[in-house]
Amino acid sequence: MWDYSEKVKEHFYNPRNAGPLDGANGIGDVGSISCGDALRLMLKVDPDSERILDAHFQTFGCGSAIASSSALTEIVKGMTLDEALGVSNQDIADYLDGLPPEKMHCSVMGREALQAAVANYRGETWSDDHEEGALVCKCFAIDAVLIEDTIRANQLSTVEDVTNYTKAGGGCAACHEGIEEILARVLAERGESFDPTAKATPAPAMGNLARIRKIEQTIEQIRPTLQRDRGDIELIDVDGNKIFVSLKGACSGCQMEAVTLGGVQQKLIEALGEFVKVVPVGAHAHARDGACATEA
Question: Can you tell me whether residue 24 is helix, strand or coil?
Fold first, then answer.
């Protein structure tokens, strides 16, 4: 499981400034409930000084998302809008005495919500959507510009880093090649070379048998939710950090299949405390047949 700081726990169990804000004149909405994380940041801004008088939030997400949102509202209160725009996702994480690497995307979401709220107050158009064709991760609607900005701002160097900070690549893994291309380009700007082997994760702390049992237990906890919608999921195989599953019933071929797999993957990552990829059984058979030589 993740190693959370006491401050993260405090802001999760006792979040500051949660709920609607009367008189809010700057509102930023980011994320998507279907992707597992959504945040609304509300600001009350003094029109004369552009100073933030109050800030509230409403979050749908994990404990780190709640804690990051709570911390953000505490950080920006009393700042001018220009000062607030200088707040980085690392500032949010530092305020909480750090976040687990796998949860840094929560602080990135907070930074985006702040940018959206300031733009809303100023009557400007803010959007995380860019030109058609720039979308890299279709599972979580993450575009190339966000990935590039996050790599530069946080000195990232691996696909796993990018997934931890943005969630891109955390679903079906089909976008890993695109993420690698962006990493190679940005690292070249820093005079560094991209090393695809650097994405390997450390060996799991628990034994192999205990790890497989934890995977089985987690999938069993997920199954009732899928069964209520006439779907199901079956564990097929475990190969290193790849967990092969088969979606059944209404889940098989569903338009939301990638989102379902992304949610299952996130649950398994949290249960195991390590980065894993959930692969649908079709892709597993394809790889075993030797038809695909590319390692995501």
Answer: coil
List where CATH 3.90.1010.10 sits in the chain: 6-121
The two structure tokens encoding residue 71: 């911390």
Neighbours of 170 (CB within 10 A): 29
Fold assignment, 208-288: GMP Synthetase; Chain A, domain 3 (3.30.300)
> Per CATH, the architecture of 135-199 is what?
Orthogonal Bundle (1.10)
Q: What is the enclosing helix (H) or strand (E) of 49?
A: none
Catalytic (active site) residue 139: no
Per-residue pLDDT of 95-119, as tens digits, reads 999 888 778 888 888 998 999 999 9
Query: Given this model, what pLDDT does residue 27 score?
Result: 96
Active-site annotation holder among 106, 137, 139, 172: 106
- State the architecture of 6-121 in CATH terms: Alpha-Beta Complex (3.90)
Q: Is the pTM of this model over 0.70?
A: no
Task: Give residues with Cβ within 8 angstroms of 232, minimum separation 6.
Answer: 223, 226, 247, 248, 249, 251
Q: Is 35 a catalytic residue?
A: yes
Residue 290 has pLDDT above 50, yes or no: no
**CB-based contact 208:216 (threshold 8 Å):** no
Instruction: Reduce the DSSP state of residue 283 to 3 states and report it.
Output: helix
Domain ranges in the chain with CATH number 1.10.10.1100: 135-199
Rounded Cα distance between 249 and 252, Å, is 6
Tally of CA atoms within 13 A in the half-sphere of 74 that contains its CB: 17
